[in-house]
Amino acid sequence: MKFKALTAIAALLAAPAFAGGADDDVLTIDGQEMMSKVAAAPALAETGIDTAISGWHFREDDTQAMQMDTFDNPAMIAVDQALDAWNAVEGTADKSCASCHGAPEESMAGVRAVYPKWNEAAGEMRTLAMQINTCRTENLGAEAYKYDGAEMTAMEALITVQSRGMPMNVATDGPAAEFFDKGKEIYYTRYGILELSCANCHEQNYGNYIRADHLSQGQINGFPTYRLKNAGLVQVHNRFRGCIRDTRGETFAVGSPEFVALEVYVSARGNGLSIEGPSVRQ
Amino acid sequence: MASGVKPRVKVPSKAAAGDVVTIKTLISHNMESGTRKDSSGNVIPRSIIWRFTADFNGQNVVDIVLAAAISTNPYFEFDATVPEAGDFKFTWYDDDGSVYEDVKSIAV
User: Fold this and answer.
1) Which parts pass through the membrane (chain B) (predicted)?
2) Which residues of B touch A74 (CB under 8 A)?
3) pTM
4) R_g of chain B computed on alpha carbons
5) A16 or B25, which is more confident?
């Protein structure tokens, strides 16, 4: 009897990885290796977590494989469509994105890695979506996209893919410090009837199950993300809203100052991870 | 007329004669089933890709008939033996009469 119990314990100890936890697979996209596990940036290290882990490591093998080949990645359809929009002349100025920025492969490389970014001239913190819309209204004379509309998300995906493999490097000092602090406050505030903060799941329980699903670290280096459940692209603010909604709370709106600040803070927690968007998740 | 239709194909650019190669194809298409209704209750007419063929140097490799239950952006993956250098020609037939084509060459 005692022997049996001992072997059972031994079997548990020998289990290769904690169920639902991050696996040890290596993420390559079209052969290019991503930094999907890196030493924690200061914003994450101060919480006692020593490794930043991409959400990719928490997903099932099938889902992981879809992201490893750009042909299999369904998000690349949106990237193709956004490329058409990039070259399409729109608005009163009779220009397209390409008129000023040329080919996205060159002009947009590295852009996603540093957003959200402080804009000195306008005196505001801008997410990528805000920057795209400012460009559209001021330089093209075109109508702004809906913040989380399909066109906007596709354009974000097109710009994101140009930075693939580059480490996230969002600034947290200078004028960004205020947003970092505000975002941090939101991250640790318990919302909703369930009284859950971001940290309750993504800091204290990543790797554990939440019902039948695995909790990730909540890193946002893979956004915009193609979610199989939506059969479409999801922006980071959609995800924030979905998480707060799941606490049964009143959520902030996409593009709201609260979510912009939260995006600054959560990005900083993942500084150093490769931009791998558009990623594929469950 | 379905909008935003764009065929995409992945074929290895090189193979040895007699090799079996994996071919992946995907076409972005709404695949409107014909059973859905719009916000005012009118049936949205069916508009799907109803047939897909692949030919190698004029010889048929696969010929597939699709039905209304197939989801958006149909994806096909199949293996083919390559006896010689040549061209793969892919053809998608739309309900509205449009035909989308793509050609990929393979060297031996």
Assistant:
1) none
2) 73
3) 0.85
4) 16
5) B25
